[in-house]
Specification:
single chain, 117 residues, 5 strands
Length: 117
């Protein structure tokens, strides 16, 4: 059954996700580059969902990973891909919208204040 549905991935809220990152985890933003440039979480890495399978080597195996997109749909898919590939992964419920609504930083290129696109 797991093979049909993919791995079950726990969801975390924005505060929990920020804590995972602060403790050494990696936040992977799976949105498209234009969305990323408009605004992303500090210290996040952009790997668009469509490229994730080809870029698995960039995702660490020795620390937790949190996936994020704009609202949560793409990041759930990404989290399942990563879990199936053996990564310790959580999905950020509500995506960057929830991150921003929680008052967490959103930055654009060069560290300027950003917006969720």
């Amino acid at each position: 059954m797991r093979r049909l549905l993919g791995a079950r991935v726990p969801s975390v809220g924005p505060t929990e996700a920020a804590a995972v990152v602060a403790a050494g985890g990696l936040l992977i933003d799976v949105r498209e580059p234009a969305e990323w440039r408009a605004g992303h979480a500090p210290r996040a890495r952009n790997i668009p969902l469509g490229q994730l399978a080809d870029r698995l080597a960039e995702v660490p195996t020795d620390r937790p990973v949190v996936t994020v997109c704009r609202s949560g749909a793409r990041s759930r898919q990404a989290a399942r891909i990563l879990a199936d590939a053996g990564r310790q992964v959580h999905d950020l419920s509500g995506g960057m919208r929830a991150w921003a609504d929680a008052g967490l930083a959103v930055q654009a290129k060069g560290g300027r204040p950003g917006r969720v696109a």
